[in-house]
C-alpha cells in the first residue's frame, strides 16, 4: 500500500499541466446573420475566420428559405480585425463548394454545372493576408 501511495505521489509531482489561456476580442466578431464561426487556419501574423449563416457542419446550401452565405476575415493574434469580406457566388451561376486553407492562404473552390453541355467548370480563388484574391479557372 505504501509503494502504491509513493508511486501515486511521485506521478502527481512530475506531471505538470499548464492552464489554457483565453482572450476576448476588443470588438464583437459575430455579425447578425453569421452565427456559425470556424477558425480555418493561420499564418505568422494572424488567423483566418470563416463565418456562415448556416451550420458549417453540413454541406447543404439551403435550409428552408435561407441560402448559404459566407464571410471571411483576418485577425491578428490580439484579435484585432485586419479585414473582412463577403464571399459571393460569382456571375454565371458558380456555387461555392469549399472554403479551406492551402499553402497558408484561404482557398475558395467554386463550380458550375452546364446542363446543356454536360460539363462542370471549376474556379479557384486564393486570398492573401491583405484580403485580395486572384482567380484561376
Short description:
The protein is mainly beta and 137 residues long.
Could you describe the 3D structure shown?
The chain is mainly beta and 137 residues long. The chain has one helix and ten strands; from the N terminus they run H-E-E-E-E-E-E-E-E-E-E. The chain has one helix at residues 2-14, and strands at residues 36-42, 46-52, 62-63, 66-67, 70-76, 81-87, 95-102, 105-114, 119-127, 133-136. Strands 1-2-5-6 form a four-stranded antiparallel sheet, with no helix packed on it. Strands 7-8-9-10 form a four-stranded antiparallel sheet, with no helix packed on it. A two-stranded antiparallel ribbon has the order 3-4. The longest helix has 13 residues, at 2-14. The chain is elongated, with a radius of gyration of 22 Å. 12% of the residues are buried.
Q: Kindly, what is the distance between the CA atoms of the first and last residues, rounded to a whole number of angstroms?
A: 71 Å
Uncertain residue ranges: none
* Secondary-structure content class: mainly beta
Total number of β-strand segments?
10
Q: What pattern of helices and strands is seen along the backbone?
A: HEEEEEEEEEE
* Major sheet attributes: 4 strands, antiparallel
Average the pLDDT over all residues and give the rounded result. 78
The strand order across the widest sheet is 1-2-5-6
Approximately how much helix is present in the residues? Answer: under 10%
Strand content range:
over 45%
Radius of gyration: 22 Å
Shape: elongated
Amino acid at each position: 500500500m505504501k509503494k502504491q501511495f509513493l508511486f501515486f505521489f511521485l506521478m502527481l509531482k512530475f506531471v505538470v499541466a499548464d492552464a489554457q489561456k483565453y482572450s476576448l476580442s476588443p470588438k464583437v466578431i459575430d455579425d447578425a446573420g453569421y452565427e456559425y464561426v470556424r477558425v480555418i487556419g493561420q499564418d505568422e501574423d494572424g488567423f483566418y475566420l470563416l463565418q456562415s449563416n448556416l451550420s458549417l457542419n453540413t454541406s447543404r446550401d439551403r435550409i428552408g428559405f435561407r441560402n448559404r452565405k459566407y464571410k471571411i476575415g483576418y485577425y491578428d493574434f490580439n484579435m484585432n480585425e485586419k479585414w473582412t469580406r463577403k464571399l459571393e457566388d460569382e456571375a454565371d451561376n458558380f456555387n461555392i463548394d469549399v472554403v479551406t486553407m492551402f499553402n497558408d492562404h484561404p482557398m475558395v473552390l467554386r463550380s458550375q454545372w452546364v446542363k446543356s453541355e454536360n460539363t462542370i467548370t471549376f474556379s479557384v480563388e486564393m486570398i492573401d493576408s491583405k484580403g485580395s484574391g486572384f482567380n484561376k479557372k
